[in-house]
Amino acid sequence: MTEPVTTTKRRRSRCGAFARDSKGATAVEFALVGAPFLALLIALIQTFLVFFAQQLLESIVLQSSRLVMTGQVQSAQMSQAQFQQAVCNQIKILFNCSGIMVDMQVASSWSSTNTAMPTLTFDSSGAVTNAWSYNAGNAGDIVVLRVMYVWPVMLGPLGFNLSNMSNGNRLMMSSAAFQNEPGS
């Protein structure tokens, strides 16, 4: 005669059946690996966008500085707004034109050139209030061109953060120091 099945034996058989069942193993493994993978993927995409935008800004500054160095800006008597629009026309792919800041100064010597990242000031609505210089210089002058943009970054997964400003954004800047070509 067989023994009656007790509650303890039933529990043991259920636990054993649960432990032997592998139907949900793939879902559990994906849950363990999926979250870190997605976090890494988001961090990679954000890093790519920041570096791509920075490289685009570098390229645009080189092209824009060539306009100044060859005297095209001076001969066309471009205003600061016109020059900023010329820069913006080349960079519309990733940047909002209203956020581009252009600073152009003449330096008295190579050692006095200022290519450092500026400290930005903001008004109560978060708009930049800095006043930027605009002096394309004359033939033979040493000119420093800085183009800046405040790039919005989001706090990435696992604390990954590319911001370099207190408001959580990233100030991107590219600069070029050059000597204007002599006049003809």
Automatic annotation (TrEMBL):
Domain TadE-like: 24-64
Membrane spanning stretches: 30-53
Keywords of this entry: Membrane, Transmembrane, Transmembrane helix
InterPro entries per record: TadE-like_dom (IPR012495)
Protein name according to UniProt: Pilus assembly protein
